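Reminder: ligand-aware prediction takes two inputs, not one.
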Amino acid sequence: MIHYKELGLVNTKEMFQKAVKGGYAIPAFNFNNMEQLQAIISACVETKSPVILQVSSGARKYANQTLLRYMAQGAVEYAKELGYAIPIVLHLDHGDSFELCKSCIDMGFSSVMIDGSHLPYEKNIELTKQVVEYAHKYDVTVEGELGVLAGIEDEVQADHHTYTEPDQVVDFVNRTGVDSLAISIGTSHGAFKFTPAQCTRNANGILVPPPLRFDILKEIEKRIPGFPIVLHGSSSVPQEYVETINKYGGALKDSIGIPEEQLREAAKSAVCKINIDSDGRLAMTAAVREVFATKPAEFDPRKYLGPARDELKKLYMHKTIHVLGSANKA
Ligand code: G3H
Ligand code: 13P
Ligand code: ZN
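Here is what comes back for the chain with zinc ion:
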């Protein structure tokens, strides 16, 4: 067993308390490889933002659990070397079983999500409570989820949102002992969050998706004042990346995300963790496609992964400064 403190990592407790009080959200960026990790750490050090490094079970399989642990430890040292020791959390994204959560905790994760949102309510409570009991023995924080996001989540496809029921949150939080709660108020995973038919066109002809359900968020906050809330599926799908990808041979159709102003608004509330993965995927793909199309003779991976890493860093800096408000909070 490796405890996360030995790796120089922190859990989410203090970070979330400060974020809720300060009216900002901590970025939770997913990573699967070295370039993504370098971009996340250098962007967050440069903007002095705390950060949650998020690893899905797919990422764990892709990158290897042992390598991941050393990469997270390396990230802590890398931040120091860059000149500012920001607080870094290593978090399991969408854990789907007690065994997976336990294995991550035993391998040095400082925070885990147990996602029982697709289970019947009582089963979700039972599983979440089991993870909390184990995690808290090691001072590891736990995120639970209530409500189902539309789209694909954990290989489960849901056609419609099942919004979080405000009347359930007090019971869920008290009976499970979770440290934070992911809710469903209209966000969803991936780069295709809305169909054009669900959107309206503004004066400039730009498709605007239906707003998040801030009314539900307010009701939840009333029931559990100051309790840390998490938003999954919070990529904004920057249209310049979609255009670059399509210009250089890609085929992304009607990719629509959550407008950044709405995330900024959410970050001012008890929403203290905002999950972003797809925007990073788009940034990297746009940069790599551009190199492949404009410099077809290039075959050194550093010549396309380098620009992809630079674009990612720019994106993450933009998020901490202009969307989440976490810059200068480390
Ligand atoms: O919510 C899911 C994250 O974007 C991770 O995606 O399972 O393909 O690694 P993944
Ligand atoms: P996006 O697909 O909107 O980036 O959401 C990522 C996420 O919620 C990871 O858990
Ligand atoms: Zn998610």
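The two ends are 29 Å apart (CA to CA). The chain has a mean pLDDT of 96. We will return to this case in the review session.
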